[in-house]
Design a protein that fits this description.
The complex is a heterodimer.
Chain A lengths: L3 E3 L5 E3 L7 H12 L1 H4 L4 H33 L8 H8 L2 H36 L8 H17 L1 H27 L11 H4 L5 H12 L19 H30 L2 H4 L5 H9 L2 H35 L18 H17 L2 H29 L16 H43 L20
Antiparallel strand pairs in A: 1-2
Helix pairs in contact in A: 1-7, 1-10, 1-13, 3-9, 3-10, 3-15, 3-16, 4-5, 4-15, 5-6, 5-13, 5-14, 5-15, 5-16, 6-13, 6-14, 7-10, 7-13, 9-16, 10-12, 12-13, 13-14, 15-16
Chain B lengths: L1 H29 L2 H4 L6 H5 L6
Classes of the chains: A mainly alpha, B mainly alpha.
Keywords (chain B): Plasmid
InterPro entries (chain A): AA-permease/SLC12A_dom (IPR004841), APC_superfamily (IPR050367)
Membrane topology (chain A): Multi-pass membrane protein
Amino acid sequence: MENVTSTAAGAERLRLARVLGPAHVWALGVGIVLVGEYMGWNFSVGKGGMIAGLMACWVAGLLYTCVAMIDSEVTSTVAAAGGQYAQAKHIVGPLMAFNVGLFLVMAYTMLEAANAITVGFLLDTVAGMQGQAGLNQQPFIVLSIMFLAWLNYRGVLATLTFNLVITAIAFIAIIALFVSVQLGASAVPLDFSAITSDPLPYGWVGIVASLHFGLWYYLGIEGTCQAAEEVRSPARSLPYGTMAGIMTLLIAATMTWYICSGLIPWEYLGQAGTPLFDAARITGNTGLMVLLFVGTAFATLASANGCINDASRAWFSMSRDRYLPSWFGAVHPVYRTPYRAIVFLVPIALIFALGAPLDQVVTFSILSGLLGYTFMTFNMVMFRNKWPLDKIKRGYVHPFHPLPTIVLLILCSTAYFAVFLGYGTQLSAMMCFYIVASLWFHFRRYKFVRRGDQFTMPWPKPNGY
Amino acid sequence: MWNILEYAAWALSALFGLLMIADLVRIDTTYDNELLISSREGEIEATAERHEI
């Protein structure tokens, strides 16, 4: 069987397929995130006005540039499915790894649910424009999750090639809108007068509050490293795809803010469901309107698709190490995907997509992501201390260490405060959930873990051990 | 038209779900579970990437 490798001991083992290149890594990272340009980020404008929206865009951009640099260095060395979970396991310890694995599964599953809800909302909008008010969104929400789960089940190459195509179209749609408006295709001129007439409607605290939704521009770019075990050359492809991804997003985010803030009054922009699509409608150009509708739909599907890929890899990796029941750590012998993990996470995504409000789902996703970024700060410091640059080879070495780590920690702290201002109860509930889960893992689950088997990297002993 | 699309969406959802479940059952009954869960994390490192200076 060609999908099976033989080990030195003679036993046959299945493994995930190593078929991806840097473009797929880019498609995974940007695909998950680009939906944030099409929806969600604009609530930052509602929290603090136009200037606050722009500052949130760039401050969050700085936060995620630090995330991308740090992640690129560590993941180019710890090239295993599970991404940050595998990093935590090797660098910090099992309890941290269990928590990081849960952060990943929760963040991506919630984001997948949010995307499915958005597909339903988008089709409801179109049906409303055609005179069919009150569309039943549920079948379309369910279909988007089931179709993408089936695609993921069938193989990673087809899944991420599909993502590459639809993500590229969604990105080109943003550029096309920007260029068209610059060339005068819009019936309504760009208007930035609110910057001077109403610069900070809620004062400086509005800027801090807006940071919460500014994260939405880039949330999920760290998902690139979940593909580590399926790329042909992890040490090269992962940093290349991740850094290209964050550059793409910085460009797309700034263009998005510029076009939407110039075309839509900030009071309306701060509440819009699909800001880029709304901006295209305001231009009065039918071609742009169709293009941005397609871009919104594709960005949403690409994000849900990438989230299924990443959540299943994290769940699979934890199960493979017996942090969760090992039954979920199975690889499909033909498609070479973590098929049981993919199927298991489908009903969980459906429950959140059909039963929870969008803002709650988004907030839980953001909080889980933030916890993961906070972990990255001390993970990076420990990695450099235990294995300095002259001890093991990296595929990428990020510059100015420890400055990006310090900046990331400061920005994470600010973002926690911003989330607390609007969603303090959810923040507390989420922390309680992770504490209870940690107690369960420590007292009930860790005894099943094969302790010697989980540390797989052929690294020298760390400094101090 | 939208009513028909709603029914079509339900039908397609059921189809994709059934395809996955049927294949999962087929694989689980055809192959030994020890083989299916035999994947190990470090095999890429052992074969392709060496972290040595």
